Amino acid sequence: MDSVLKFLSMGGYAAFVWPAVGVVALGMLLLLFHTLRTLKQRERTLAALTTNGGEAADNEET
């Protein structure tokens, strides 16, 4: 158990290391959500283009 606490304290640098890890994790989650949202938009655009014979739907963003 002592070795786990030593690891979590990061040799006295835990106040710098763990917030940095949190910022990176938050950034990666935001990137994931943005990527999934963009994917869904592009899938809708593709579906509209294939069903409308090549004409984009009116509600699509440019």
The amount of helix comes to over 70%
Tell me the total number of β-strands.
Answer: 0
Order of helices and strands: HH
Low-confidence segments, given as residue ranges, are none
What is the end-to-end distance? Answer: 56 Å
- What proportion strand? under 5%
Overall mean confidence score, pLDDT: 89
Topology:
Elements lengths: L1 H8 L4 H38 L11
Give short descriptive properties of this protein:
62 residues, mainly alpha
Question: How would you describe this protein?
Answer:
The protein has 62 residues and is mainly α. The chain has helices at 2-9, 14-51. It is 74% helix and 0% strand.
Could you give a quick summary of the protein structure above?
This protein has 62 residues and is mainly α.
